[in-house]
Design goal:
Length: 457
């Protein structure tokens, strides 16, 4: 008895149910899609989408409904989520719920992710400290504080490590603004914090302010608060700061966790040493609109493999000239997956394995850090609606790395992004109706209901 098969007509590269994400069509495709059939396999070679894509987990650290930005960083006072030792993790979750909406709309409905930072002391000014009621203000050293520190991190892990609204967690806690100065964490505290955060967060990247050896050994990423400032750049910048450390001591930390931070525009406006006319200007809009300023910032994004930045995100997304400049930076930030080709069989048997072969280059600056799957779907050719979809086993997008070893003079990586060849499988349901279908691909948010949430270029 001959078994029915499902002819697969074409490859669609759009997401099936992509959540709201802003502009993704400001560029033009460079050529028509190529399709070939050989030995029972269809190979599709789509043209690269030339525009910027407002993808999640990268870009500008803000929500920009008319521009680029699907991330929010949130400062959280310790006593907002824990007043006393007996407070449960539910208090952390309840507060998280209050900071994950924008104008009444939930983050998960906007495809926006949160990067939280808990802190105790804003800047040392009277009344700007937020210790829990049962601990002494300015106590960083007592055994009681060290134990509470460990227990709080455990609660944060229970609240956030499986929360689909959270992308990464900034360590914070110690020093002004949680930036690990005034005071800096002691060696004992660094060991405690490294162990506690590693134990609490198995799924979400942890970010720290400084390249302390305990944190680098733990595989943590960086939030750097003076990104691209020329006074911090090697070879003349301070050796204890991220640019020097990333250049000479830890050149591959970006492979393990994100590099992010903020662009310090106050320094650009107030300090002669910042050399604003030789670097990236005095305002975010200037950075976007002046070609030399924009090139300077792109150079640093590429050099340090930055995933996203704040403060620079205060650009005017109603100005077309500014938005065009922001699009250039958006293409460089984080990951950018160019699908060079996709291959699949002409037909598949209901209940059988559907194999998809992908060739992908990451032409961005950083990896994709979360374990999100690529899914394959079969679409009704008339309605383009999905009949079935499933994640592909055997495809790990975290391994699709960008180029390495940035050459500022050539404005290119000395080791360009290489094509990654991945092969995945999914089992087609036995009861699927025989017929012809379109084949579609999407990148799914694993913790966010397995909804398509990121796009190929």
């Amino acid at each position: 008895m001959k078994r029915a098969t499902l002819p697969l007509l074409a490859l669609l590269l759009c997401a099936l149910f992509l959540a709201q994400g802003g502009p993704a069509d400001n560029g033009q495709q460079s050529a028509s899609t190529g399709t070939s059939v050989q030995n029972g396999w269809v190979t599709v070679t789509p043209p690269e989408f030339q525009g910027a894509i407002n993808n999640p987990l990268k870009g500008f650290r803000d929500y920009k409904p008319r521009g680029y930005g699907l991330l929010r960083r949130q400062y959280i006072k310790w006593n907002e989520i824990e007043l006393c030792a007996d407070d449960s993790v539910e208090r952390v979750i309840a507060h998280t719920n209050t900071v994950t909406t924008i104008n009444g709309r939930r983050f998960e409905d906007l495809n926006v992710k949160l990067v939280p930072r808990v802190y105790l002391d804003w800047n040392g000014s009277p009344g700007m400290q937020y210790w829990p009621a049962d601990l002494h203000t300015f106590d960083y050293d007592s055994p009681a504080f060290q134990e509470r520190l460990r227990r709080l991190v455990e609660k944060l892990g229970k609240a956030w490590d499986e929360d689909p609204r959270i992308f990464a967690v900034q360590m914070g806690l110690i020093g002004y603004w949680g930036e690990h100065h005034n005071p800096a964490p002691t060696a004992a505290q660094r060991r405690l914090l490294a162990e506690a955060f590693q134990k609490a967060f198995k799924n979400k990247p942890v970010l720290v302010r400084h390249n302390d050896p305990e944190f680098m050994q733990a595989g943590f990423g960086i939030y750097y608060d003076t990104f691209a400032n020329i006074s911090r750049e090697p070879p003349w910048g301070p050796k204890d700061q991220f640019p020097w450390q990333a250049t000479y001591h830890y050149p591959e930390i970006w492979k393990r966790a994100p590099i992010e931070g903020e662009v310090e525009y106050n320094w650009q406006q107030q300090r002669e040493s910042a050399k604003p006319t030789e670097t990236f200007g005095r305002t975010p809009n200037e950075t976007m609109t002046v070609p030399a300023y924009r090139r300077y910032m792109l150079d640093k994004i590429r050099r340090y493999h930055a995933s996203y930045l704040g403060w620079i995100s205060n650009y005017d997304d109603t100005n077309p000239e500014v938005l065009a400049g922001a699009a250039e930076l958006q293409k460089a930030f984080g990951y950018r997956f160019v699908l060079d080709s996709a291959s699949y069989p002409l037909a598949v048997t209901p209940g059988g394995k559907l194999t998809v072969k992908l060739t992908v280059r990451n032409t961005g600056s950083a990896p994709f850090y979360l374990d999100w799957p690529v899914a394959v779907g079969l679409l009704d050719p008339a309605t383009k609606k999905p009949v079935w979809s499933a994640p592909l086993t055997g495809v790990d997008i975290r391994k699709w790395l960008p180029g390495e070893d940035w050459d500022s003079s050539a404005f290119a990586y000395r080791r360009p992004a290489v094509p990654y060849h991945s092969e995945g499988q999914a089992t087609v349901p036995r009861d699927i109706k025989p017929g012809q279908y379109f084949l579609a691909l999407a990148i799914l948010d694993r913790q966010g209901g397995l909804l398509p949430s990121a796009r190929f270029a």
